[in-house]
Structures are given as structure tokens and as C-alpha cells.
Specification:
With 217 residues, the chain is an alpha/beta fold. 53% of the residues lie in helices and 12% in strands. α3 packs across α8, α4 packs parallel to α6 and α6 packs parallel to α7.
Length: 217
């Protein structure tokens, strides 16, 4: 065997090993499921000094502690209405490599209520979001939201009904109120009385986890 033949064999072997390692890495990435969280400031971590205290980050830590190998994608943007979130959804999914997204939490509606947006408009936007996610075979959890009392009983009732109706008509997992156990508790909210503190985020995660585990089981 001459030098050149020996060198070619080493080169081919090295290339083959590299390709196998690369394939293994790609396959490992492909089988790691992703949880996509489409939300507003409540999931974006508004007002929290440490980004690690945001809902997606704390949720990721909790899932790992439970032995769940799931990558959490934070697609929350402060100030987003349901319509605004719908408009950026496909872009956000593409940025998150949608092929690996298997689960999604929809946490929207608070800004719609604060801006007195028509519940009918909010419902249309949320329906479109559900259709887009379902169209990519992504399992969905829809988190409900309530309008503030100052909007009046009629608006409050119509707004709350949006979420139950969408969950039923689309047969998606429903978590009735994202801020359950936190809303109205001064000790668990920041000074604005709206956004949860790190402790408030912990309560949200504890309360939502049974439903989330049902989604991903």
C-alpha cells in the first residue's frame, strides 16, 4: 500500500465518522420535543429583574426536574393582543424550527380586554392561531383569561365565554385561567397588581403542571 492510498483510506474513514456523528446529533435534536409558548407579558417575564424567573424559563427547569426532556420556546411578547400574536405566529414558529414543535400553550387575551377589543375579534384571532398550530400537528393547551371587572358584566361574560367555546369546538386541552391562584394576591404580584412576581410564577407553574403533563403524556 502506497502513501497516497493509505491517506485516502484515512480521509474516507474520518469523513465517514464525521458524517455519522453529525447524523446522530441531528437525530438527537429532531427527537427532542419542543413546547412553544405563545403569549404576552405574562409569559414574557415583564418586570422581572432576572430573566430566569420568567414562566418559560422556570417551566423548563421544572420539566427537567420531573425528567421531561422538552425544550421550552418562549414566544411571549409584552403588549401583544391576540391579533398581533396571530400575525407573527408563523414567523415565530419558523424561528423555533417548527418541525420539532410538538406542544403549544396559548396564553393571550389580557391585552385584548384591557383595550376593550371586541370579544368577537379576539375569538377570530384565537381561532386562527389554533388552526395554524393544529395544521402542523401541534398539540394545544388553551389558557383562559378574564376581563377586568371595570369592563362591565356583559363584556366580562362574553369575553370569558370565548375560551370555553374555542376549547370545546376545537377539542383542545383547556386551562380555565392562566393566573389562577395569583390574580388579586398582592404578595404574588408586582406593584402594578397585574404581573406576577417570581413567587407568583412559581404558583402558576404548580397549578398548571397537571394539565401540562396531561398535554405531553
Amino acid at each position: 500500500m502506497n502513501y497516497h492510498t493509505h491517506f485516502k483510506k484515512i480521509t474516507v474513514t474520518s469523513l465517514l465518522i464525521f458524517c455519522l456523528l453529525l447524523l446522530s446529533a441531528v437525530q438527537a435534536a429532531a427527537i427532542t420535543p419542543k413546547l412553544f409558548i405563545l403569549g404576552d407579558s405574562l409569559t414574557a417575564g415583564y418586570g422581572l429583574q432576572n430573566p430566569d424567573d420568567s414562566f418559560p424559563n422556570k417551566l423548563s427547569v421544572k420539566l427537567k426536574a420531573l425528567g421531561k426532556d422538552i425544550e421550552v420556546i418562549d414566544a411571549g411578547i409584552s403588549g401583544d393582543t391576540s391579533t398581533a400574536a396571530n400575525e407573527r405566529l408563523l414567523w415565530a414558529l419558523g424561528d423555533a424550527e417548527a418541525d420539532n414543535v410538538q406542544y403549544a400553550i396559548i396564553e393571550l387575551g389580557a391585552n385584548d380586554a384591557f383595550r376593550a377589543i371586541s370579544p368577537a375579534q379576539t375569538k377570530l384571532a384565537l381561532q386562527d392561531i389554533i388552526d395554524k398550530l393544529a395544521g402542523q400537528n401541534i398539540k394545544i393547551m388553551l389558557a383562559g383569561m378574564f376581563a377586568p371587572p371595570n369592563m362591565g358584566d356583559e363584556y366580562e361574560a362574553e369575553f370569558a365565554a370565548i375560551f370555553t367555546q374555542l376549547a370545546e369546538s376545537n377539542d383542545v386541552l383547556f386551562y380555565p385561567f392562566f393566573l389562577d391562584g395569583v390574580a388579586g394576591d398582592l404578595a404574588l404580584n408586582q406593584a402594578d397588581g397585574i404581573h406576577p412576581t417570581p413567587e407568583g410564577v412559581e404558583v402558576i407553574i404548580v397549578n398548571i403542571m397537571p394539565s401540562l403533563l396531561e398535554l405531553i403524556k
